Amino acid sequence: MKRLMMKQLAIGGALALASTTVLAQDLLIRNATVHTATSQGTLQGTDVLVRNGRISAIGRGLNGGNAPVLDAQGKPLTPALFAGINDIGVEEVSGESATVDHRLSLGSGNKDMQVRPEFDVTTAYNPESVLIPVARVEGFGWTMLAASPNSGGSFIGGQGGAVRFDGSLDPIGPKVLFIALGGDGANLTGGSRAGQWMILDQLIDEVRGRIPQDSQFALLTPAGRATLAKYFGGGGRVAVGVHRASDIRRVLRWAKARNVRIALVGASEGWKVADGIAAAKVPVFVDTLANLPGDFDQIGATLENAARMSNAGVDVAFTLSDSGSHYARKMRQVAGNAVSYGMPWEAALAGLTRVPAQTFGVGDEVGGIAVGRRADLALWTGDPLDVAHTATQVWMGGRATPMKSRQTELRDRYLHRNETALPPAYSR
């Protein structure tokens, strides 16, 4: 026990040194178990040298020159993790409309449907959201902002994008189009799943000019047509929210016929059609904690969903079904649960790093530890997929980030309230 405490103190002291150089972008991390999340796999007892915010070298016995040195003492080092598909930075308090920007409300009912795929939720992103440090201290460095389907009858929510948790205002990488199909989208298309495919075909006809812009049946603005044209015919990624196995099969068939690059989100019954998903090379984002039939689209939900799809050759990544913005820190638990139900550990780590990065076209920026990439890193006390362990330091672009959030500050305040003076309102 004494030896363990001494090691923890040594790591803590080194991390304190790193924290005093928050503005520095040079760093040498020695003797780490480096989970690269690349083809290099896991490297034992390895050094990582950071120069000007990017990884300069990976190997043993590296010479860091004047760079600050941190002895990891064999602890795991990973890329900063993916926090799922959520609303961090565009939804602060769900019950306060002034803080909710992830949805475009346009009228009500099918009669007034307005399809606005040009809606871009990233223009509302607030990098100073108090939710960001909550996720970041848990080892998460980036997320995908989602545009939710609107209350005006459109199952096309709009566009989202990947953002870093480093205070940057602008997204990284290409935009992603969000669509809700199946039961979630049926109430937005006349109450029938068949209506979804009818309207999708009409939208394609509009994009290709077969329905004039001034037609009484047209659903798109000129900007909407230009936006959708980027996603049809092999263009940008379309994230399709869908759960039922039969709906997934139909989505795969439609995407192939229309040459649309899709990713499935949800896919509670994906395990039933895993071979088809793997053959189509479509990545899937799942919530492994969703194991009950929340609705009739998820009758076949199971804790083994991620493992079965992964073992069938599907690229599986993780997200949360509900409250993703406030509970993104639970993404490690989501991945850990997948491992406990049969998913290989390396595949689960990839689901928080490589798979989402490649899916959303930001693989050269995030999701891996390799020479030339930005040094978005997390050092752990132990297995990063085990919630019994924590991140001891997170670096964004080589800069050590403060390992505190509103929650940790409140915790420390009240744990030590008898040791420090409190404002009169808190005095007994």
TrEMBL record:
The lineage of its organism: Bacteria, Pseudomonadati, Pseudomonadota, Gammaproteobacteria, Lysobacterales. Gene3D superfamilies: Metal-dependent hydrolases (3.20.20.140), Urease, subunit C, domain 1 (2.30.40.10). The keyword Glycoprotein does not apply. GO terms for molecular function: hydrolase activity, acting on carbon-nitrogen (but not peptide) bonds. The keyword Endoplasmic reticulum does not apply. It comes from Solilutibacter tolerans. Residues 331-399 form the Amidohydrolase domain. PANTHER family: ALPHA-D-RIBOSE 1-METHYLPHOSPHONATE 5-TRIPHOSPHATE DIPHOSPHATASE. Residues 1-24 form the signal peptide. It comes from the Bacteria. Transmembrane segments: none annotated. This is Imidazolonepropionase.
